Amino acid sequence: MDIAKIAGSRIVEVSRIAFATPDVDFLCFGESDRPSPATARQAAIAALNAGDTHYPDVRGLPPLRSALSAYLTDLHARPVAEARIQVTASGMAAMSIALSATVRAGQKVVLHSPAWPNVGNAATLRGAIVEEIDLIAETDGGFRLDLDRLDSMLIGARAFILNSPNNPTGWTATRAELEAILAIARRRDVWLISDEVYSRLVYDGRAAAPSLLDIAEPNDKVIVCNSFSKTWVMTGWRLGWMVVPDGTRDAFSELVEVAHSGVAPFTQRAGIAAIADSAVVDDFRAHCAQGRMLAEQALSGLNGVRYKAPVGAFYAFVGIDGLSDSLELAKALVVRHGVAVAPGIAFGSAGEGSLRICTAQSAPLMDRAMQRLIKGLRAETGI
Known about the structure:
Helix content: 25-40%
Low-confidence stretches: none
Structural class: alpha/beta
Strand content: 15-25%
Number of helices: 12
Radius of gyration: 20 Å
CATH topology of the largest domain: Aspartate Aminotransferase, domain 2
Number of strands: 15
Shape: globular
Oligomer: single chain
CATH superfamily of the largest domain: Type I PLP-dependent aspartate aminotransferase-like (Major domain)
Mean pLDDT: 96
Number of domains: 2
Distance between the termini: 46 Å
Order of helices and strands: HEHHEHEHEEEHEHEEEHHHEEHEEEH
């Protein structure tokens, strides 16, 4: 059949085997074992019971837009006007709308890699020519972005897709790095599309990771995309938002109308309640910090393993010496050792030789899963 095709998800490939295998610990998805906050669930139920099920304003409910404006203004160094906020059906929907607005067939889009595959695939589906700039892997297991190479690669590009804190590596750009990236984008006249869904999940004492919202002007060619999925433990709700350049929201709203015609109002009511429940964010960050610590303790001192606990996100991206087929290893870990992790190749060729572990899990699950993982790595790779 003549339909558009993209490469299948290697994460999904591993998960399907895991779903069919008894007694498997799931660390392959970017999802916690925690439930969504009770305040959000109760707000959605109340909205449903009140009959709040009709078409909403496609821009998003005014109370949610106002709540997001206040939240972002309080969190970042510069105010974010309500008139710049567009509600979307998930963070991925926000990224897709951003690409629809800015990228045309045949234009070059640059993204750093390893990268969450959906974003590059979304650009490819729009006919873009996707070029990847590999994050430089440090010997201690950390990563960094080569800004000089980025400057060169953005010549003639239409957009640069930034993801900080990064999935899968946890790499988090400093404010100085963001200032340099913004300066390059301005000089090259390139759109900056910034995926900041992990912005609140940082472990260095800050309330949030450095953001383009701290430094960009309202009329810069910058689109910041975010989601309720990670910060508020609401992965299945499919609720996100965009911060768009001043004066452009109506144009973005028309694209949302075509793409998914707005977001269910009862879902948006849950988002309003989640923002008001500020304790959820601190509590979930502490939950993720515990899982991060348990992963670090389990992996420290293992010969043949390269890992440095990252500043942000909730993953351990673990390099394995000599590993050339991370997908087959991930499958073997499921079938023979009862633990599901994401193969590094799922995040592009720069990810091969590594495994991604989601650390946003409760202590009992993390303890058991890490024991299984280490036993499996020793059996399968000889580390």
